[in-house]
Amino acid sequence: MNLKHINQEIFNNQIKEQVKEQDLNITFDLASQPILWINTNIIPDLLKKFDLHFNYLTDLTCYDNVDKADGNKRFILVYQLYSLENDIRLRIKLPVDEGEVVPSLSSIYLSANWLEREVFDLYGITFSSHPDLRRIMMDERFIGHPLRKEYPLKQRMQFADNIKINLDRSPTDPNKNDKNANKENDPLLNLYNPEILLNLGPSHPAMHGTLRVMCRLDGENIEDLKCELGYLHRGIEKLGENLTYHQWIVHTDRLNYCSALNNNIAYVMTVEKLLSINVPERSIWIRIICMEISRIIDHLVCIAINALDMGAMTIFWHLYHWREVAYTMIEGLCGMRLTTTYARIGGMSYDTYDGFEEHLQDFCEKLPKALDEVQNLLSNNRIWIDRTKGVGVLTKEQALTLSASGPILRASGVPFDLRRDFPYYFYPDLKFDVVVGSAGDVYDRYLVRMEEVKQSILILKQSLKELKKLKGAPIWTDVPQIAIPDKKDVYSKMEVLIHHFKIFMEGINVSKGEVYNSVEGPNGELGFYIVSRGGPKAWRMRIKSPSFLHFQLAEHMLKNEKIPDAIAIIGSLNIIAGEMDR
Amino acid sequence: MFKLQNKNIEKNGDAAFYTTLLDTAVGWARKNSLWPMPFGTSCCGIELMSTLSATYDLSRFGAEVVRFSPRQSDLLLVAGTITTKMAPVLRTIYDQMLEPKWVISMGVCASSGGIFNTYSVLQGIDQIIPVDVYLPGCPPIPEGLLYGILYLQKIISGEIARPENGNGNGNGNGIGKRVTYEEAMGIMNCK
């Protein structure tokens, strides 16, 4: 038994006793994680009472309770807290009625700012003492709250012009006016004008197509800025409530399209937890290999694009070749390069192809040499170091209160990796290092990613050995209600045909309950929170996406940086718009 | 395309001349020097980058000079989902491009909304800008994009008729119909 799990169990017992004293209700979800029910927002007091430091807000979301299954109130707010010291999760639920005002948590966790804006936008819940409560995904002129159950899936609103972003006109720096007073005599020096704003994006090469930053400049320094997102908000969460669990797998590909395999597997894993089933060992090893391959290609894309944005084009040509090699393998596994849809609930859609082991072995042997070449080009390159060292520094404390995760959190010096700290699958048996940086700047993020690719290669080599041992072993679960029958049998046996038809036309019947499950995705903690009310469709499909929170980091990090550095910083955050906007 | 007037011309560097129609010569020059403006928003944008990279090498077809300024480019490559929030931006970019200009709608999201038939996704960019080539696929593989660009080259050189209002390859369902500025503004203003 893992020590971390004992901690969670001890905590579960402790909280049961504490709750009895305070007349609060506590329940446990299907993965035996505690859910604490409160009536008013007493989270700041609760946090003080627990000895454990829940210093990390994993997620803040909401679901519609229009069917009154969870009490009489209309909405349920869900806070996912995490204690980094003890690796313990706690979910707090707060029922809220329509029109009720909830105190904002953004004074305790800075990351709650955007998460609360999202709830306000999509559900219409208002938060008091919130610094900037306005719509985040939809246009400001949009009417209605799309994630409410009564909002029709296909009701669209089109506006003729792009959304306007206003910055506060008064300069943030109080000394600014004095500084200008000295320059007033010389008109050439007095070029500062707070009325002039610079718009970056959404169609800007360094803004990845969909990000938008509006900044006020003092010379080349960004004095104040606001980030705008939602240019790729596709309503994937709403679709999750309208499609069966199987049909929705394709939508997970289009979240983080640089590492689609990772999303497929994370989602399928969550549904399997909801169904309380296990998959065979061979399937798990295939999944681990797929997740590590996708981590490698995601990091390669991030480094390549970050270097390309700063003008280092050679890296782009070089690394994209290796991504193509990986894509050829992925295409062999599932027939598609980018949008894979490889995993299925209870197994994998196909077993590995003949010769996959050799291809992977070859990939693992040749890639480190290519990485060395790239490192020779970048790591000691004077220009690269000057452009990246000390740029976009994110301190440990900032990273935690802004809920950064993945390589960005580790580059800031927090040794947090879900593969080690909240392990899943066979990761405890695998030997790898958690890569930690120290400075938290762009250069450290690059180094962390580079080293993580090497660690992933080590994991791939170990997993390949295990996979070879299990040649010919089954990849499908033995639960007949869930396992998709073999195509050969579908065409030759009547019962199997009916069974196949039922699985795909009706969907799998999932019992009532909820579960939150997350994996260490390439750019951070990727979680799925599914609330089921029974039946083949989810009641609430929540994606905890790292990129959403990482773009919020940008709003804090870009302040007082120069414009060219802003390009470097945004590149180093690896923001994937599909995952950010969902 | 170019008619060699004297078949006995030797390849010795002597001065020679060709005669052709001016339209043909201009079409030939245009089709081999397309400057794309990539409007990559999502997954298709990643495949677009793959097409530009060394393995597929779009520069073989003269279309590698990627310009992020609409003023400098003549091919708008819409790669990815266009949401209702993004639609005005796309129309602005299209209006900023100078004639002659062409549009490739890469992937099903840009062409028809694809699998995202939801409250926030524009169901096909041909509602707001005219499209010359539609590419199927989610996303199209790089070879598919290369095929689309080669197909567009045929349109530019005049081998295939460009879809126009009322004629072209429109089949009566509105597909291939080129939306006008007024029609686009009408769609974008209605709530």
Q: Can you tell me about this structure?
A:
The complex is a heterodimer of chains A (582) and B (191). With 582 residues, chain A is α+β, with helices and mostly antiparallel strands. Chain A is built from 20 helices and 15 strands. In chain A, helix 8 (281-309) packs antiparallel against helix 9 and helix 8 (281-309) runs antiparallel to helix 15 (442-469). Chain A is globular and about 90 Å long. The model of chain A has no long low-confidence stretch (mean pLDDT 85). By secondary structure, chain B is α/β, with parallel strands linked by helices. Chain B has a single domain (37-157, 177-189), classed as Rossmann fold (3-Layer(aba) Sandwich), CATH 3.40.50. Chain B has a 4-stranded parallel sheet with strand order 3-4-5-6. The longest helix of chain B has 16 residues, at 142-157.
Quick tags:
heterodimer, A: 582 residues, Beta Polymerase, domain 2, Cytochrome-c3 Hydrogenase, chain B, 2 domains, 5-stranded mixed β-sheet, 3-stranded antiparallel β-sheet, 15 strands, B: 191 residues, alpha/beta, 4-stranded parallel β-sheet, two-stranded antiparallel ribbon, 32% helix
CATH topology heading of chain B: Rossmann fold
**Rg of chain B to the nearest angstrom?**
18 Å
β-strand amount of chain B:
5-15%
> Helical element count of chain A?
20
Give the strand order of the largest sheet of chain A, numbering strands 1, 2, ... along the chain: 1-2-5-4-3
Class from secondary-structure proportions of chain B: alpha/beta
Largest sheet of chain A: 5 strands, mixed
Overall pLDDT score of chain B? 81
Q: Are there runs of chain B of 5+ residues with pLDDT below 50, and where?
A: 166-174
CATH class of the largest domain in chain A: Mainly Alpha
Number of domains of chain A: 2
Show unreliable segments of chain A.
none
- Terminus-to-terminus distance of chain A: 37 Å
CATH topology description of the largest domain in chain A: Cytochrome-c3 Hydrogenase, chain B
Please state the oligomeric state of the protein chains shown.
heterodimer
**CATH architecture classification of chain B:** 3-Layer(aba) Sandwich
